[in-house]
Amino acid sequence: MRLVLSIRSLLFTLGVLVLSASSFAQVRVGVSIAIAPPELPVYEQPICPADGYIWTPGYWAYGDADYYWVPGTWIEAPEVGFLWTPGYWGWRDGGYFFTDGYWGPQVGFYGGINYGFGYFGHGFEGGRWDGGHFFYNRAVANVNVTVIHNVYETRVNETNVTRVSFNGGNGGVNVRATAQEEAAGRERHIPAVAAQTQHVEAARGNPELRASANHGKPPIAATARPGELKGGGVVAAKEGGTVHEPAARTETNNAHPENNNAARPNNVVHANDIPRGEHPAAPNTGSPNLDKKYQQQQDKLQAKQDKERQNLQQKQDQDHQKLNQQKANDAQKQQVEQKHQQQTQQLAQRHVEQQQQLQQRQQQPSHSAQAHPPKG
Fold first, then answer.
1. Mean pLDDT, contiguous 10-residue spans, the chain (376 residues)
2. Pairing state between β 222-223 and 72-76
3. Is 26 helix (H, G, I), strand (E, B) or coil?
4. Burial class (CB in 10 A: 0-12, 13-18, 19+), 220
5. Which of 26, 189, 232, 252 fits as disulfide partner to 102, beta carbons 3.0 to 4.6 Å?
6. Is the whole-model pTM more than 0.85?
7. Domain ranges of the chain
């Protein structure tokens, strides 16, 4: 029964993969979580490393059955005149969904979340483009004026001082997009650049950044440059945020284990986004030797699929590194991400078929034994 549920889960993932192919411009949108993300921690902004870098605030992401903190960092703008619209968590359809951020000529809607450092719920007060150069607001941005001279100072009154990290739902920020923000979302924009994607992957791979380990107070709250989670440019959180516990309705239900999923990954793009199938229950055919054989087959298949997932992820990581080295343009990056999504979809589909075939092979001898019981 548990094997059937695992197969259903993977089939569901594949279905959404197909549906999401047409809306690839905003990948990694559509992860539904039953538990609200933790509050935003309090931290200082590291100094801007160079002219033309835009601040991208830290946020809580979700992966491997836990929230993890993606440190705020400075990112070089992909185009002159482009600003960053942060991603945000929002409540809808009985769960928390994350909407990805993007680069564009105007800052769009980011849930009304007060990420700080210029992102106070609407727009961006940390700087502006003028004459092909980015000017930093010293009242908000931490810049070294002996190195960066294009600065100004405009005091900003924050109206939204909450540290809540999600929009809507119970206790969320009750803010809707303005007409201007909606228009900004329809303008030409591009997704997170390769440096941001690698920054997220580095955060996901660091166990210290998981909410279960840092209890809402990440030791790496912000970095001067993306992906650099060690060294002098790293800033720790001064104050942590509340980590929400599962609601009573998410408690274990042995009668209906399919209802116990805290997360339903919908839009996987890379191999390590494929949900690892739940290990099937030990076979119980009544024959110890046959049960042992079936268990060995299940273990062997799962180990094989884990290895294939790891190998594909390594190849995809190498693609990301090559893009960085070659300083690829956005069209090239988009093409590689589309290839990654296709590879991931094909691998997930193959794994589903392998599990189905194994289940069928294991059921056939059992049915045969029932149809022709031994003579006594």
1. 46 43 37 87 96 96 92 96 96 89 96 95 95 94 94 81 89 92 91 94 95 95 94 92 62 35 49 62 70 84 86 87 81 79 80 78 55 46
2. parallel
3. helix
4. buried
5. 189
6. no
7. 33-249, 267-370
In angstroms, rounded to a whole number, what is the distance separating the alpha carbons of residues 192 and 333?
Answer: 10
DSSP 85-99: E--EEEEETTEEEEE
Distance from CA of residue 15 to its chain's centroid? Answer: 19
Q: At what angle do helices 330-371 and 288-326 cross, to 10 degrees?
A: 170
Between vectors from CA 204 to CA 109 and to CA 3, what angle results, nearest 5°? 100
**Interatomic CA distance for residues 94 and 259, integer angstroms:** 13
Nearest to 68 by CA among 278, 221, 251: 221
Among left, alpha and beta (phi > 0; psi -120 to 50; other), residue 168 is left
Element (H, E) at 235: strand 234-235
Residue 28 confidence (pLDDT): 38
Query: Half-sphere exposure of residue 167, counting CA atoms within 13 Å on the CB side?
Result: 21
Residue type, 64: D
Instruction: Tell me the one-letter amino acid at 16.
Output: V
- The CA distance from 126 to 85, in Å, is 12
Distance of CA 348 to the CA centre of its chain: 18
- Residues whose CB is less than 8 angstroms from the CB of residue 210 and which lie 6 or more positions away in sequence, other chains included: 66, 67, 68
Give the integer Cα–Cα distance in Å for 186 and 104: 10
Helix (H) or strand (E) holding 219: none
Helix (H, G, I), strand (E, B) or coil at 362: helix
Of 325, 320, 322, nearest in space to 337 by CA: 320
Our separate counts of H helices and E strands in the chain read 6, 16
Q: Tokens standing for 130? A: 């003028």
At 21, give phi and psi (nearest 5°).
-60, -35
Q: Residue type at 330?
A: D
Do strands 133-137 and 66-70 pair parallel, antiparallel, or not at all (unpaired)? unpaired
Phi-psi region of 250 (alpha: psi -120 to 50; beta: other; left: phi over 0): alpha
